[in-house]
From TrEMBL:
It comes from Larimichthys crocea. One of its GO terms (biological process) is cholesterol transport. The keyword Signal applies. One of its GO terms (molecular function) is cholesterol transfer activity. This is Apolipoprotein B-100-like protein. PROSITE patterns: VITELLOGENIN (PS51211). Keywords: Lipoprotein, Signal.
Amino acid sequence: SCKVEIEVPQTCSFIVRTTGCSLSEVVNMDAEGNPVLGPAPGSAAFAAEMERYPLKVVVEGAYDVKLYPEDGETTTILNIKRGIISALAVPLLQEEKNKNMPTIHGKCKTYYTVNAREDIATDISLNRDLSRCDKFVPMRDHTSPLALISGMHYPLAQLVRSSQTCNYKFDNEKKHMTYGTCTENHILIPFSHKGEYGVTNVGKQELTLVQVSPHNERVFDHSDIVMGLHMESVVDKSVVQDKDAGLNLLRELANLPETEGEKRAHLFHKLVTMVRGMKTETLSPAIPEALAVSRVLTYQVLAQCGTPEC
């Protein structure tokens, strides 16, 4: 969770600050079976990264969103801020109901319904088929629990049904948003029943207006770095391209005595993580040696790895 401050120094120009952020994770279950949340490791570092730089945003015309991040902002943090801005984007209601709108997944055909109206529409729902957005490329995101599928060159978008529904409430008098929520639903079709139940991933964002205060600052200077609203893939620079380290780990796993079976899962996970970061020029020459160590383990690692290189 974060506190998001949006300053509006000029029309359609915004300065977004994200302060007081925290990361939580499930630490226990209560008597009713509900998850109990506690601070996640790295929460303080995450908060500092989110707060370090403001993000300047300019909307040109109706739907051209330009971001001006500061030099030094990481792609990971920028992607999280993109998600916040994406959730705040509401279509112009006087236009046709299936407008192509900018989102974190690129331009998406967006359908909307007005649920309540006073002088203005005060309750609006949106829905999108994310797999039809122009920058929705799940194939490169190696985060699927079914890594065998996530790395295939066949576009994963054909195997995953992804949708997003949002609901917004507006203040009739002051004409601004007071509440917004967006839910993304990703379902893996081959492992689903009737396209509904099975391997799913659900993400939900909630935005609640805390306060509005007048502000007289009119200065809006931005950096020369200009980016779009759609999410960018993150290159892991921490991965060491060392085939020998991978081969040594494979040998350790292959020679593990039965009495130390409890180490097997940890070593296998460590090996898969290492291989996932390898580029083709590191991985290719290692494969013949790996097959000589253990054919079975090598194929298991490659199947679990899930990157196009694997």
